Amino acid sequence: MLHRITGRAVKCGPAAISAIAGVPTHEAAAVIRRLFDRPAVNGVHTDELAAALEELGWAPDYALRHPNYRNRRHARREQVWKRIFENVPFDVRAITLGTFLDAAPAGTWAISAGGHFVAYADGFVADSGAWFSRRPARWFRANPDHGRVALRRVREAVRFVRIAPGHFIRNPRPGRS
Description:
- It is a single chain.
- The chain is an alpha+beta fold.
- It has one domain (about 10-160).
- About 30% of the residues lie in helices and about 20% in strands.
- It has six helices and seven strands, in the order αααβαβαββββαβ.
- It has helices at about 10-20, 25-35, 45-55, 80-85, 95-100, 145, and strands at about 60-65, 90, 110-115, 115-120, 125, 135-140, 155-160.
- Strands 2-1-7-3-4-5-6 form a seven-stranded mixed beta sheet.
- β3 (about 110-115) and β4 form a beta hairpin.
- α3 (about 45-55) crosses α4.
- The radius of gyration is 15 Å and the shape is globular.
- Residues about 165-175 have low confidence and may be disordered.
């Protein structure tokens, strides 16, 4: 289930975190700034988004990557990417956003397509308001707002699962209790 995106930050990374975790975008941006010692969040990489969601109780359990994606700069910090995604199963496929969403994949997803993050769950999509609404809307390719972005290439799509209360995070950082 996606949450309505609330908060002051308007960038797509914090918006996807807000839709998945249910926190305001400015809190999601604050988590990224704290974790990565950044003065501002004007764009995020998948590793930063996943680390912030991990802090908020969500862990990646599956990923889909474009064949050429790993040949490019894919992470701000390679060691963070390895810590989070080292044991996460993945498939390599070239696919468009519309083809991916038309199949109605199960789970809660953060999708990087065309340099933009979109949140998806249970047939609903949401983002910062650039492509879709901040309020989760049912994915429907015939909708003109959805059809115009259906041909965007998916660079990476990561499915996240809620970590049960009392569970330890899979790969804890040093100094974390």
